[in-house]
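tool_call: predict_structure(chain=1)
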Amino acid sequence: MKLYRISTREYLMADFFYTSEVDGVLVVAVAEPNPMETLFDKEAADELTRIMQAFRPERVVVDFGYIHWCPTTAIFALLAIPKYLAPTGRMKLCGVSDAAHVACRFLNLDSTTLDIAESRTEALAAFQDHETLVTA
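tool_result:
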């Protein structure tokens, strides 16, 4: 179990994910797994929910880089994230496996609900591009 600092006094325990901040964007990424941790299960979904509740981010990138199998538990966890964001918060998803991307397309989530980027770099750049458009 890892310990993450939320503020000067608060910490968050996490096993499945690690968090970082890049240019004001919270990045929640799957920690490098051992072979048995490539399944997104209920414990991982609960941990993702705890992270979102603790940080209440304005902008978040969720990186599924090590997830090879994406059951409905993962999809439901991702669909729940917006209710934990700041009021004007936005989420981008990246590192999605081909199988998970197919599932999202099949459910029509890749263009209507989930904003999926090819890479973490692309997801972070999209936030910067949006900021530039808003301030211009």
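agent: Confidence is low (pLDDT under 50) at residues 132-136. Proceeding to next step.
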